[in-house]
Fold these 4 entries.
Entry 1:
Amino acid sequence: MKRLFLLIQACLALPFALKAQQQQIFIPFSHPWKYMHPMGALPPRPVQGDADIDFNTTWFLAEPQFLQNYDGPRFGADPTQVASPPVLNSYDSGFGPGSIGYETMDYWVNPQPAPAEFTSNGTTLTTPASGQRRTGYFRTTFEVPAGASLVQPIIRYIMDDGGFIYLDGELVATVNMAPGVTDTYTQLAAGADNTESQIRVLDLLLPAGSTTGAGLAGLAGNARIVKQIPLLSAGTHTLAFSVHQWSLTSSDLGFAFQLRTRNNISATVSGVARNENGTLDEPEDDTFSFSVTLTQGDGVNPTWMSDAIPPVSGSYEPVGLSKKLKKGSCALGAGGIDGVMVGA
């Protein structure tokens, strides 16, 4: 009888084993960014007037190291540095809300799926002259509150045409860039196909080398994980990225970024009832029934795992199916499905 009680206790532990944290958005699409967007050649250092020879290794550093080491073209605090019309060494420098870019993004007029989550840029950059359209640079900081953590972070994004993503000074992912290329101002993206019609999802929980960012209707992923990030601890973090054109005459440039936690599966157990089958002194034939309600997130099919001994796991099942519970285990169907566990 004691074992029977422990098995039922394992089933009742399911809400604690499966329930995930509420989805949290740490960087919304409208989050403000510091930016530096050249109009032609990479601008010189503003104080010295000469080339910034370590620009490619310092612009993306975590904020404390950035403030200590970066002396290149200014991000964020300056008024616009763009001449009219734009000249070779001029650049946009400012601080404004996302999405950010110039000209029209396909997502505004033909979103997949509809309706669009935004229909214009929060900040519009100056359009460089045709033949001078290369790369824009963007930085921000965000807080994970004390006593909390950002578990299983994902990035929802549009990046037109491609780029490099850095977290706390380390490269964590690339988007639509050829394998092996480095992040330099003159490096072009791998192409422009399907880069701006839908919001993609970059899964930072995947191991290094994984492809991610798949789109709707079988659209292949266009991002590659460089460093796996299972969680971010409490404190101040820096997100930086470069957006690269695929052609010097490309018609537009733009990005939209949202950083949030994964919205995982949750489960609740209710209606636990015991049936002694008319044999009060024979617990071996007793059964217990209960109802398990699963809630999935992110529009994907999650998996489950119980606290039974030994542990049991399986795939999410469509509503309407159920699983017979085997001796010594707890198994789940979909929302509101009943299960039965045989006594032991």
Note: Residues 2-12 form the longest helix (11 residues).
Entry 2:
Amino acid sequence: MAIANVAALKKVVAQQETASLHDVAKAIGIKLRLADQNENDAANQRREAGEMLVTLRARVEADNQSWKQFVYDYFDRPRKELEKLMTYVPAHKVAKAAIAAHPQKSDRAIAEEIGVDHKTVAKARARTGYHSPVEKRIGKDGKARKMPEPKQRTLGEIAREKQLPIVLLTEAPCEGCNGKEEFWQNSLSSMAGDAISLSAYWTQQFGNWQQFEPTAEMVVLATQAAETWNEIVETMIKSPPRANAEPTAKATPQAIEPRKLPKPPKIDMNVIKQAGAFHTELLKYTMEFCERIKSWHAEHPVDEESHFCVVQALETASMRLQLMAQEIDDR
């Protein structure tokens, strides 16, 4: 492939893990020449060249070729100069290139080869999606071992492990809540109310939804949701008494009763039906109107003034709908 322009160079850089080794070597040579010619951008060009060299070397050695001979055949620069550029590449990027070239090798085997900690390799494997490409991995001793089946984890467990903020899309506002405890009570009531009314809501929206075929992922999610609700109930029942509560004499397990939670707000099915009717009516009218505009615009020659008038009308209608949505949205 001839790299005749900037677009072709960028294409090879973006596809350096799959492009031909010769093309990647040519792209690296071009970047190094650009660095020699432009001092202002030299640091960036050499940095990118170093990262590409790491990937290229991993691919060359994975192909059972001699890196020393490859550099002699395809580069017009000393091997030590190229390898010096590679020393500035961050460890996680070196690990990423090694994993892409040898996905069947274990984290410790790769870490020993490239001189980094095995935890760095494990993190790079998890980021790049190479955490489960093969059934077996080859360890430092050269033996292939079958990988254990990954444990099915809930989204909450993954969020807690990665310390991600958990955002609930259906969280109800609580303007009159005083303190975290009342907000929590309101949150639980709202979520539980949604869960209780879910079956009726689906029936109203989709009719006989029980006939639909769920996927395996949907069954897993529903099971995890049920297990989470069970854990919440068990936690509330077993929760210890308040620190300032008066101790009771010889409290027995039979005397412990679950705390009474506030009843969820009663759901008016007529309101749900009306909201659904508004949704259907507006969506149908908008689609029909847009089709009419497209058909009219295609059949009639429109001058610049008429074109601007139609566009302005559509933009004004869109803005008005957005303003209406903001006015009635109290969340």
Note: The two ends are 56 Å apart (CA to CA).
Entry 3:
Amino acid sequence: MVVSDRPGPLVAERTAARDEVGELLDELVGKPQITNPGWFDVLSLVGGAALVSWATFGGGPGWAAFWGWLGVVFGLVMPVRVLWRRAGATRVNLRRRRMAAHGTLLDVESSVVGEIVAAYERLTDIVYPPAGPWSIPALEAGHGAMLDVAMLLDGRAPTTPAEIEYIAARTRAMVDLASAAERQREEEARRSRLSIEEEQTQARQAKAAMADAMQEIEVTTGTGSLREMKRVLRLMRGEEGDGPNAKPDQP
């Protein structure tokens, strides 16, 4: 993992791609007991090349070509394997250096480091991105602790009791900080729900008051859309005016 220079989540180091070529060589000839080519590889390569040349240009028997090519293959196995794995190690080192340019490497294989990483990830899940006045201080404090641990270990695992206790103390504080941040987030969510409910209640009350006021105005002034619709309906039925069904206008 990489602890970024800026407060935020940890950056996972990308897992190296599977070395399929190296695995194939291991299956064919077994895992190497030595790390560099030796005299056996040189003799196999030179002897095999000599047999191939004899069979090809010197009129040698067919079996010479077969055993010659076999010797060449066995003579090249170790050099090819060494070159391939060195190239893979170079790629890994380059990737690690690029990542280190943006932060500090942290070895998370040990359990004590894994615990503080888990606590910090829980904290960042709660406070990142910052969403409240308490989020930024909590994130900066937790990030500072991770930087302290990363710089103390310098890319290696903790080995001494003092280092383990140093990390454990910050783990305990990180757990407490994450728990407090979670409680604070829940409290803010509760307050937000109450505020929304209060606003909705006030809106309903305002609408009810508006309806009552409009009804009171219609009753007081004797006007309004409801009264007018009833009057027109009576006219259409002949219940108002000079018709035989006319009735006195009702308030």
Note: Strands lie at 2-4, 103-105.
Entry 4:
Amino acid sequence: MSGLPNRAVTSIHVDRDNHNLVFATYAGYAAGNLYTSTDGGASWSNAIAAAQLPAVPFYSITRHPLRPGWLYLGTEIGLFASQDNGANWSAYNDGPANVIVRKLSWQGADTLVLGTYGRGAFTLKPALDVQTVTVFEFYNAPLKHYFRTADPGEAAAIDNGAAGPGWSRTGDDFKAWAAFAYPNEGRQVCRFYGSMVPGPNSHFYTASAAECNGLKSLAVRTANSVPRWNYEGLSFAIALPGDAGCGATQVGIYRAYNNRADQNDSNHRYTTRQGEYQQLIAQGWAGEGIVMCAPAWPPPPPFWRRSGDGGSPLSTGVETRRRSDCEADRRSCLISPRSLWLPWLCARAPRRSRRDCRGCASRSSASSSAAGSPA
């Protein structure tokens, strides 16, 4: 292996999502005791570490389980952290101070455990900032293609014709989280693009780490003269569906595929509209089910709470329906005393009318108030 020193190796870390990304730490009072490889260990560099990190022994390195690119480094003089895969480093102020950090490990997905020399073990939970973004949808009638972007600048450019003629907004937008600022349940969404030539002239999105890495590996093995999916980066973050689908405060995102790979004209649509998803299937598209779960928007108001188990009522001091009844057909509705329609609770049943939603209330305000008071 080229570029590595002849000194004691103290730890090796292989990125869980990108096996070509490898880190190695070294002992010794020398500059640059952290080496990085982006090609699976074929070549190594310590240029960034030599410029930004102290010339002391490094003992352990680990990555945040939920945040690709967030690295933590245990050294002779404390803990250091990076949020961009080691491009920039700084001392981490929330852990133990100037103490030898020998071992780093994770307790669950959000608690970092530090084993020190002389001061026992420490635990800390790195703060996870959360930012909400809008994922816009466009449709091109001549091409019969759909496209999504979470970049407002890109969306505005498409509106102004930068992507060519024929593109218009569908209004089927959904909320997600920023690619590097999302809650624990979020997963980063990889964005791929074919090409104008040889194609396909389309984009593909996936929140599956396995699917993302598989397409990256396939692109490396495929000549650029052959149609392939090329990785463009991380677009946004979203939740994945569980065995029972999306959660009670989430909106399912369906994926449909146009079945035109043989014509080198592949395109996928990601939609929250179940009725339009079924229409695409009737037109010959392949239905791939719910592949993502968007946070419902606007979020539940502060006075809303869930009381008791799955069969208990949703108690807000207003007319309500039992949660088990509403969720049995995935049509949760809640009506205020003035019979206002709250679309964030009825988003799962877009074909239901406002009258239907009003009918979802099966209790009077008085009986609802007796069942539970507002949170």
Note: Residues 301-375 have pLDDT under 50 and may be disordered.
